[in-house]
Amino acid sequence: GQDQPREVLGGSTAGLLIRGAAWRHLGGLAPQLPLHRDGVDLGWRANETGMRVITWPEAILTHRQAGMTGQRVSALEPDPHEGDRMAALRVVAARGPRPRNTTSLRAESWLRALGFLLLKSPRLAKAELRAARRFTEASAVADLRKGTPDNPRDVAALLPVKFWALRAALDRLGSGIAERYRDFASQDESELSIDDMTGDDFSGGMARRRVFTPLAMLTLTLIVVAVVAARTLLGTGSIFGGGLLPAPRDFAAAWHQAITPDVGVAGAAAPWQLVGALLSWVTFGNPQTLVLLALTLAPVLAALSAHFFLRRLALGQATSAVLAATWAGATLLLGLVTAGDIGGMALAIILPNLARTIVKVAQDDSPGAERLRAPAAAAFWLLLGAIAWPLLWFLVLLGGVGWVVRQRYRWPEVVVILVVPAAFLAPWTPAFLAAPGRLLTGPDPLAWPAFPQASLAMFAGRILPSGFPAWGNIAFFVVLGLAAAYATFRLSSTRRRILVFALVGVPLVAGALLSRIAVPVAGGEARALLSAWALLTVAALLTPIGLLRLGEGALALDRRIVLTSLTAVAMLAFGLWAFFGFSGPVDNRPSALPGFAQDVIASPRQSRALMIENHDDGRLTWNVVDATQPRWGTGERNPAGAFKDSYAELVQFFSGGDAPEDLADRLTAVGIGHVWTRGFSAEQLAAIGNAAGLTSNPSDDVTVVWTVVGLPSRVMVVGEEGAAPIVAGEIEAADTPRHLRLAEVDDGRWQVTVGGTRLARVAGDSGVTFVLPAGVFGAVNWGLSPSNGVLAWQVIVIVLLIGLAAPTAGGGSSARRGMED
């Protein structure tokens, strides 16, 4: 509406042109509106009398709104917002064919005041309430109504359309997205060299815009490489391997797992499972597709995060794109993606964003509550980072304490950054108290208990089995190390050189030492997350190159050689990923269990399967599988739980060559319906076959699956005639009371309902047993009581975080900042 003249309801008196006859006919401005909204009222009255109020775009006017922004202080108006809002209420209450009821306007003002409180502006909330209390004083509304003609013209077409405020908000959102896209699609003039400016592109005095900016080229390259590399993940199996466990079957399973606590562990489940469940909305509730997207897009998102962080430091687009490509290349060659290191992939994306928001906090000099927006963004990224690597919160705590010691006025920002994530993670604290080693690990630490300790290969970035050739790692990290060393020695400040050496050495040594320690976690053992320290080391190696570019006097030729070398090794990393794909631990593979065993496990029986493999070197490995494990999140707890001794004893029975007669009963007691064995000798298999209650079914030449006769269930009904498994998930009525027994680890949070009736726990029983009253029948539902209170608390924390990060209603100060920008 800014290109052509059009009719409007009214406007500001600044720049208003009106005929003298019209002015006299309308009686001029209303005295009931001393400073604000008088132009709207005048135009409204003019339209109602049949006159026309139109815009004229060719007339240019700069209106500074000095009264509204506080640049002009008026003795008649202590608070500009109060006066403006009071005038607005008077106009709306007086004008139009259906004037608004004063009671509804006051109620609306109370809601607006609440909104201003949520937007961290108590001053505007108070002004809103004062205006609502005063707008009917001295019969102002009644006097304004006297200016309405007897037969007013209908001006409904000039009023704002329905949901106009929502449309305006969407317009502002689109404008913000366009601002973000500008850096992606526009050329940075500060990055142009003399050769560029004297080339053919500048002939004729006009520069031609590049079709692709460095960031666009980097993004497009990574997406193409990711699509090519993902070819090895296509198939009908599940994507898992290394530190990546299979995804839940659907959103309901992922959500249930996220809000259900771990058996035998106090507190809530690891909150990263909640993040994974919520992110599966992106893939329409399919966690398996989310895993595929995460593996393929992690390098792309890591590169974008690094680029925007470097742009915050005022580096040019080309330099930022090269360093971001190097960061993405390191993410690949360290093995974070192809080895399924969930924590490493998350930190590769989170760490640059956390650093960017902390830099923004340091640069922000906004007054009042607006000063808390940047810390809220930093708290959000720290929250995600602490979920992936809990030790990160303590590292930021140390940095925050040092910051406050140097700049005491920064304590509010530091408190927001640290307290909000701590409040969100508080329900997870019992897991750390039970196993402090969990602080050093990443998600699902027990997914790879044989995590390799650091060795000399660490200096070549060989910290995980990536599936890439060693020469690729050596070439990449040698070039990166030489470029960092050159840039470090070109720094003019000795203090900065020492800082760079410390930034590189501390995480390198800390990661090497911690990775050699096997920390106890939930009844098992795992190693510290080495990839987090490796990423910090890579970031430290890139630091002197960034400092060199920021103005340390490097020659243009030297800088070009450094950036060209980094570009070459980054493209080498991308090429290796495209060629080898996912040839490391992560792969798309079907389950080793035959279909008949999987069907029983997924049935209402929900029985378990014991999988035992006898390796050629004499090692014996085993695992327990059911309908819910292995799935992501089960690596947070020992899958054997309190049954680990029973499972270990069963494994020895199968491998020792002397199976007891009650082997089937022992399997039934812990809910095991199938035993998968591989690599066993004929003598061992014959000894197992002598045990009663077991039948064998060879799957191939080296694999035999044993089935317990009767197919036990994890839920058994115990009556006078003995224990009977629940086959169809329902219980028939009986005339006498019975017991219902779960083959589960003892935990006070187990609950069972039959036909909607909640069963009572048997007091003093060593197992998980419930009383099944006579006459009770129906479908059986059982499980741990969900952590609804924890979820509510986390929602409250997130809402608080959103409120802190939301724009502050700053009134005049905000308007002045907008004009200055």
Description:
The chain is 49% helix and 10% strand. The strands form five sheets. Strands 6-5-7-9-8 form a five-stranded mixed β-sheet, sandwiched between helices.
Keywords summarizing the entry:
821 residues, alpha+beta, 5-stranded mixed β-sheet, 5-stranded antiparallel β-sheet, 18 strands, globular
- Look at the helices and sheets and give the structural class: alpha+beta
Radius of gyration: 34 Å
Output the number of helix runs: 29
Distance between the termini: 24 Å
Q: Based on CA inertia axes, which overall geometry fits?
A: globular
In which order are the strands of the major sheet placed?
6-5-7-9-8
* Helix proportion range: 40-55%
The beta-strand count equals 18
Q: Hey, roughly how much beta strand do the residues contain?
A: 5-15%
Helix-strand layout with pairing:
Blueprint: H1 20-26, H2 38-48, H3 66-69, H4 80-94, H5 102-118, H6 122-134, H7 140-145, H8 164-185, H9 194-197, H10 214-229, E1 238-240, H11 251-259, H12 272-279, H13 287-312, H14 317-333, H15 342-363, H16 373-388, H17 391-406, H18 411-425, H19 429-434, H20 470-490, H21 494-514, E2 518-521, E3 524-527, H22 530-549, H23 556-580, E4 587-589, H24 595-602, E5 608-614, E6 620-625, H25 644-656, H26 663-669, E7 672-678, H27 682-689, E8 694-698, E9 703-708, E10 715-719, E11 722-725, E12 730-731, E13 738-742, E14 750-754, E15 757-758, E16 760-761, E17 768-772, E18 778-784, H28 788-805, H29 812-820
Parallel strand pairs: 5-7
Antiparallel strand pairs: 1-4, 2-3, 5-6, 7-9, 8-9, 10-11, 10-13, 12-18, 13-17, 14-15, 14-18, 16-17
Helix pairs in contact: 4-6, 5-6, 10-13, 10-23, 11-12, 13-14, 13-15, 14-20, 14-22, 14-23, 15-16, 16-17, 16-18, 16-28, 17-18, 18-28, 20-22, 20-23, 21-22, 25-27
